[in-house]
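Postdoc handover notes: sequence design on the structure in folder B. Input tokens:
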């Protein structure tokens, strides 16, 4: 079992993250059932009815891809979309820092008809992989956890390989971030200047800085935009609370357990008040970019 976790600098510098980055990530993602429910909430409340995975792989010829890697695979949301799109006999390795995804990832591979292997560990385990050993690498909503190893992704990519990475705009979730910050500041629980882990995370690799971070490592980069808003009507208040409950360690870490409990109570009260006042419900910006990268440059990453 590997559990060495490299902490991106932006997160190390973050006040909240000093609490313990590794345990926060595990706190959020080890609740696999909640992760699934949250994925369904996102799907149901999205204004963009297109499947982001379809947009990501549209126009891509992956039929030559035999050696595939999904980093931060979770339950294999993206792997599922590769069914019938990759080479017969293709093999896929899923890496995730949460061991609990092993069985669900393997089940997804079976459904997709792709021979799968799950590695429990930090994404930096790819440093042990051979040069040019993958035809396709997928990072679906995960590259912002490990932007510091993009050079290694290039190194393990074959010269005809493609990297597909889905990330958020830096202002994604701004309404939820603003709402939570106002609530916590008003109740004397944080300073207004405090940066939530979720903000540091999203901005560590985003639509805005992604090209700049990828360009030293890939000669071909295509950007696809995926505009989306999550809309919660007054009757959807409990879905929004469930969404917040899943993500809370990335908003409220650094608070005492008592303050976390208080924050949840306040969140419900504030949300109720918001829904009483607003006819538009609660709208959350959630625009993404899909980067499709080719022509890896073989320079050694700093280890
Ligand atoms: C937002 S989820 C995305 C999961 C999946 N790719 C999807 O699209 O549904 C991020 C995933 O990355 C994993 N993760 C976070 N940090 C990681 C790291 N340093 N190394 C490997 N996996 C990591 C989490 O456990 C989680 O499963």
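Designed sequence:
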């Amino acid at each position: 079992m590997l559990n060495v976790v490299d902490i991106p600098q932006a997160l190390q510098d973050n006040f909240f993250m000093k609490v313990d980055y590794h345990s926060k990530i595990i706190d959020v993602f080890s609740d696999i059932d909640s992760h699934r429910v949250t994925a369904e909430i996102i799907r149901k409340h999205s204004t963009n009815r297109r499947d982001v995975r379809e947009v990501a792989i549209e126009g891509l010829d992956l039929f030559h891809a035999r050696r595939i890697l999904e980093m931060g695979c979770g339950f294999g949301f993206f792997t599922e979309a590769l069914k019938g799109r990759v080479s017969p006999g293709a093999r896929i390795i899923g890496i995730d820092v949460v061991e609990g995804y092993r069985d669900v990832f393997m089940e997804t591979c079976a459904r997709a008809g792709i021979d799968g292997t799950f590695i429990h560990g930090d994404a930096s385990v790819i440093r042990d992989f051979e040069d040019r050993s993958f035809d396709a690498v997928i990072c679906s909503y995960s590259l912002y956890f490990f932007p510091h190893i993009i050079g290694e992704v290039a190194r393990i990519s074959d010269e005809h390989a493609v990297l597909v990475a889905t990330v958020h705009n830096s202002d994604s979730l701004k309404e939820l971030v603003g709402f939570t910050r106002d609530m916590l500041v008003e109740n004397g629980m944080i300073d207004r200047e405090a940066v939530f882990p979720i903000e540091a995370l999203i901005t560590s690799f985003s639509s805005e800085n992604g090209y700049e971070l990828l360009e030293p490592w890939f000669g071909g980069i295509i950007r696809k935009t995926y505009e989306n808003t999550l809309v919660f009507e007054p009757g959807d208040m409990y879905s929004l609370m469930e969404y917040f409950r899943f993500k809370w360690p990335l908003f409220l870490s650094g608070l005492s357990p008592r303050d976390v409990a208080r924050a949840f109570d306040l969140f419900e009260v504030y949300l109720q008040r918001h829904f009483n006042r607003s006819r538009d419900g609660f709208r959350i910006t959630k625009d993404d970019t899909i980067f499709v990268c080719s022509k890896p440059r073989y320079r050694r990453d700093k280890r």
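Context for whoever picks this up: The beta strands are 67-71, 91-96, 115-120, 134-140, 157-168, 218-226, 229-232, 282-285, 288-296. Don't rerun without checking with the PI first.
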